[in-house]
Amino acid sequence: MKRNDTIRVWDPLVRIFHWSLVAVFFTAYLTEGEPEWLHTWAGYIALMLLGVRILWGFIGTRHARFSDFVYAPSTTLRYLVDELVGRARRYLGHNPAGGLMALALILLVVATGLSGMVLYAADEGAGPLAGLIPVTEAWEEGAEEVHEVLANLTLGMIGLHVVGVIFSSLRHRENLVASMLHGFKRLGDERH
């Protein structure tokens, strides 16, 4: 592929955010709280990354903005049906299904991180929510259950995201993982 046949779609902030979030999520998930400091800091870093990404979703480059990849439910459903029958159009940025997945993952990781902060406050009386959350067994058990469910749900959605990336890469004959590394996608029959 020649350079003039490509266009930069993913800016450096989006790409660094994406792979950094992958690293800190799996660090937090695989440590399961042991060592606690590593698990906790991975969660804090994930929330900080998401804070930057959410801001970038409003002020960033074209394909980084929520307005570019948050579609009406009817548009997303129509896209999924078209994809199943092999007539879905290619998008330069996130397609409607990818946009929904990006939004879902952002919300799930934020909820997982916040539930971890509640757990840390309820169990250890520590962290940013210390003093706001009672240090009780009931709060600790409830927060732990919510945190684990959200973390596992996030992991399941990540798996679905990977399947969607592979499917779309094969369907549209482009390496979406590579484009999230170098930022470029090929020009052609895409929509916006």
Quick structural overview:
By secondary structure, this protein is mainly alpha-helical. Helix content is 68%, strand content 5%.
Describe this structure in words.
There is one protein chain. With 192 residues, the protein is mainly α. It has one domain (3-182): Transmembrane di-heme cytochromes, Chain C (Fumarate Reductase Cytochrome B subunit, Up-down Bundle). Helix content is 68%, strand content 5%. The strands form 2 sheets. Strands 1-3 form a two-stranded antiparallel sheet. Helix 1 (12-31) packs antiparallel against helix 2 and helix 5 packs antiparallel against helix 6 (137-171). The protein is elongated and about 60 Å long. The chain starts with 5 loop residues before the first strand and ends with a strand.
Structural class: mainly alpha
General form: elongated
The number of domains: 1
CATH topology tier name: Fumarate Reductase Cytochrome B subunit
| H/E element order | EHHHHEHHHEE
**If helices are DSSP runs of H or I spanning 4 or more residues, what is the number of helices?**
7
Compute the CA-based radius of gyration.
19 Å
Subcellular location: Cell membrane
Keywords: Cell membrane, Membrane, Transmembrane, Transmembrane helix
Membrane topology: Multi-pass membrane protein
Domain Cytochrome b561 bacterial/Ni-hydrogenase: 9-183
Secondary structure topology:
Blueprint: E1 6-8, H1 12-31, H2 36-59, H3 66-69, H4 73-84, E2 90-91, H5 96-124, H6 137-171, H7 176-182, E3 184-186, E4 190-191
Parallel strand pairs: 2-4
Antiparallel strand pairs: 1-3
Transmembrane segments: 12-29, 41-59, 97-122, 149-170
Main location: membrane
Protein name: Cytochrome b
